[in-house]
Amino acid sequence: MKKEEMFNYKKLTAEELKQFNDEGFLVLKGVLKPQGLEQMRKECMAAWAKEKEAFDPNKSWLQNSLLVNIHHQAPTVRDYYFDGPMVDIATQLIGPNVKGATSQLTFKMKGNTKPFGWHQDNGYGELEPYNALTTLTALDDTDRGNGCLWLIPGSHKQGQIRVQQSEEQKKSQSEIVVEADDNLAVPMEMKAGDALIFNCWMLHKSDGNYSTDRDRRILFLRYADADAIEVYNNGRPRLGKLVRGNSKFDEVKQFESDI
Fold first, then answer.
1. DSSP label at 223?
2. Are the C-beta atoms of residues 31 and 68 closer than 8 Å to each other?
3. Closest CA to 53 of 41, 65, 71, 70
4. Which of 182, 203, 169, 9 lies closest to 88, judged by CA?
5. Which pLDDT tens digit goes with each residue over 63-100?
6. Integer distance in angstroms from the first to the last C-alpha of the chain?
7. MF terms per GO, please (predicted)?
8. The CATH number of 3-253 is which of 3.40.109.30, 2.60.120.620, 1.10.3720.10, 1.10.8.50?
9. What angle do CA 102, 216, 45 make, to 5 degrees?
C-alpha cells in the first residue's frame, strides 16, 4: 500500500505555527487515513502480543505501558516515522536537519488505572538544542474515560525544569514528577487517527484508564535536531536516523536505525 493511501500529509499554516509557539501544542485531525490506521493497529498489536501480557498492578509502568523501537517490528510505523506527515511538520518546527529520536508504543490497556504524573519529555531524555518535538498518534479514540493526556497550555515557556533524583531512583527508572497546577490542565481528547504534537518542555500527564471495555493505545514518536546531544550522557550525540537534511556528527550520518 502506498504511503499516500495511508497517511494525510499537510503543511502547518501561519496560524498553526503561531499557536504552537504560543501554547506549545497542536492537535492535527485525521493524520492516519482509515487504511493506515487499520494496518498500523494490526502490526502494533502483533508486536505488543509478542512481548506483553495483561496489565499487572505489580509490574512497573515500563513493563505495563511501553514497547520501545516499535518501528523495528511494524513496517507501517517505520514508514510513518521516517517518511510520514510528522517528518514534514518536524522540519517546520525544528528546522531543515531532523533525526528520529524515539519510537515506542505508549499503551494504557483497559484495567490499567495507574496515573502518570506531570512531567516534561525532555526531563526523561534531555536533548540540546531544546527544540525536540513529541508526536502522539492515537490508535483509539482517547478521552477522559480511558486515560487521555492532559497538558497545560503555555507551560513550555518555563523551560527545562530540574528534578533531583537519587542514584537509586535513576537505576530503578522511577517516574520524574513535576509540581503543576491541575486547574490549568486541558484534556487532549482525540479521535483514532488524530495526532497531538507538543514542545519538549510541555508539562503533561495522564490519568488511569478506568474504562472496562476500551483501550487507549498511542504511538509515541519523538524528533530532534540532527545535531542534538544528550545532556545527561556527557554531551554525546543522540543517535537516530536522519529523516531530513544532514548532521555534523559522523555517528548520526552513518546510523542505521533498523539494525
1. E
2. no
3. 65
4. 9
5. 889 999 999 999 999 999 999 999 999 999 999 999 99
6. 24
7. dioxygenase activity
8. 2.60.120.620
9. 65
Residue 258 confidence (pLDDT): 57
SS3 content of the chain, % helix, strand, coil (to 5): 30, 25, 40
| Amino acid, single-letter form, for residue 77 | V
Domain boundaries, the chain: 3-253
- Beta carbons of 115 and 208 less than 8 angstroms apart: yes
Residues in the chain: 259
Closest among 27, 32, 81 to 198, alpha carbons compared: 27
Q: How much of the chain, in percent, has pLDDT values that exceed 70?
A: 93
Distance CA 62, CA 106 (A): 9
In sequence order, which residues have a C-beta less than 8 Å from that of residue 174 and are 6 or more positions away?
A: 165
Which is nearest to 77 in space by CA: 54, 100, 61? Answer: 100
Q: Which three cell numbers stand for residue 124?
A: 526523561
Distance CA(186)–CA(250), nearest Å, equals 42
Q: How remote is the C-alpha of 194 from its chain's centroid?
A: 13
Residue pLDDT, tens place only, 97-110:
999 999 999 999 99
| Structure confidence at residue 58 (pLDDT) | 79
CA dihedral 26, 27, 32, 38 (to 10 degrees): 130
- pLDDT tens readout for residues 186-206: 999 999 999 999 999 999 999
